[in-house]
Amino acid sequence: MGDWFQTIVDTEATPQEAQGLATSVLDWLIADGFVSAERTDCVLGADAGHAPGPRYGEAVEELDPHLINLWSNGLHVTVERTVFDAGQGEPSAVTCPHCAAELPLVDQYWSPIDENWDRFSDAVNSWPDGDDEPVACPSCDRTAPVHTWIWADDCFAFGHLGLTFWNWPALRREFVADIARRLGGHRTVLLAGKL
Q1: Across-strand partners of 132?
Q2: pLDDT of 89 above 70
Q3: What pTM was estimated for this model as a whole?
């Protein structure tokens, strides 16, 4: 079994604006009844979150009558420099932000290509600590900070703000777009995964 999650990551929010954006979006989600105002023990990996509100069904593709009975069914808001990941699986490739060359990260059998992963591993692991270690493209030889590379399969996203919905059915595309608008039109990535 396991727990399913979806995280909307704002990849452009600065550390200085992340908290204000999080507060603004959370206020809207509460005011419109998508989540409850009270913080409870309803999320994994955090002290408290916001349980589904009376209008949560308008945010998802289809209602799940069992969601309300699950312990982990809430929204957790992360406001800190984080490498968000989908929990299981690896991205198949990463694309250079300069020349658009795609570097495969797994082979045809979905086994990691160690040589290519090694190029990124230190930068990915040190990013949450505040490092912006540049990674050189093997195609154009230009460097770019790891968070500016484009990760395939939406398995990774780098940001200072993430909204994680635990065990909610698939979020409606319009709901995700509305959140992106409320984040100032910032680029967002929707990660979906299972633990």
Answers
A1: none
A2: no
A3: 0.91
